[in-house]
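Intended use. Records such as the Glycosyl hydrolase family protein entry shown here are meant for training and evaluating sequence-to-structure methods. They are not intended to support clinical decisions.
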Amino acid sequence: MSFPKDFLWGGAVAANQYEGGWDAEGKGLSTADVVTRGSRSQARYVTYQTADGVVHADEMFTLNTPDDAKFGVFEGFDYPSHEAVDGYHRFKEDIALFAQMGFKTFRTSINWARIFPTGLETEPNEAGLKFYDELFDECNKHGIKPLVTLSHYETPLGLTNAWGSWNDPRTIEAFLRYVKVVGERYKGKVEYWLTFNEINTLGHGGWMGAGVPSTDPQKLAMTAKHQLLASAKAVELLHAIDANNKVGNMIAFMTYYPLTCNPDDIMACWSEMNSNFFYCDVQARGYYPAYKLKEYEREGIDIHLTDEEKETLKNGTVDFISFSYYMSNCAAKQSDAAETSIGNMSMGFKNPYLKASDWGWQIDPTGLRYSLNVLYDRYQKPLMIVENGVGTQDELEEGDVVHDGAHIDYLRDHIKAMDQAINEDGVELWGYTPWGCIDLVSASTGEMHKRYGFIYVDYQDDGTGEGRRIKKDSFDWYKNVIATNGDDLGE
């Protein structure tokens, strides 16, 4: 039992959590650039100004702003994406470290506002294009294949201020203009593409994934439709640019178990799993599933899906399925006895059979094996795990030592589950890119305190630190895992 010889071992980051350089060389503001830092006990906030000149900061996941709101950066707020971990200036140093570990692939994203500063331009920013030329060239120099997400939790802020971003169909054409430019520019440098990161998180609010300042169900349904159409058209466009391009989707996959064998809990679990499947069903099968259309009908939502749009979805299905997996959850119709679970956008109940991380996320490697089987059986398309990991409170000790044994234990157990899915169950899995291969600012809180990386970055939440890169214990451990193609997990 072993992993395929061409298995793509690597790691993953996102531009807004990694790069910094928020206004460097013509880059415009992205929707991530106006989100403040939070903590485990505080929400993150989006800053904007209304017509009366008053500056507001509303919670990112409950954002419903007035029509006259204009989003921007204001004095007195801490915006973690502005500096992130300074990858904009230090990516060569970081890629050299990834190469030392033996990475076969590196998942990152292009910051759209670095290419089209407001999203409204017709000509791209050459300095932004050059930056990614250098980034991808550096990867390829070390034999590392770039795996590039086109939209990873950031949209040019200009599109939000102009017409509400992805709630307006004009954003589709702006996105395709961007995709055409980067597809042609990086032809031969990038072979693996993802359209929208964790597209299904739109169900929790429109800001993070789409720059839409609303939680209104009708608006979110239209936002989802526009992104799904854009994804389908991007697939066709990237295939036309280069027949070698492989284009995938990306969903946040959280396996649900029924809390009990009560039939009502079984149906609650089915409903929660459908919330995982919906976007993937459209992107991989090419049509809106009946259960979603019925849900819209019950809720009085009209997405105005035309025959031409149906044909677009049918013709733009993805080549492979990619997903994030961090934890599982339990679903129940109702329960007064069970404790609710904790985690990003988590809405379920605690599983009494599982342990939890420092942040309360339930650790379930068997759930990864189950997820791989469910997705492969449903779609019969190759899979990639493009995010997986655990946030830990790593401490830098004297002598530049970081012992992150909990991190190693988590990844080891999940790699074992991958091995079982491939070799015992027959799942076709192309690659594995653990999240935050280098420490990043958190997407959910904007803090540095939650660390996922094999490489410690010496930045702290209070702004101190010089950004030094320091290898953790997991660095050499993962290096050995890759060198042995998963045969030696260092037990």
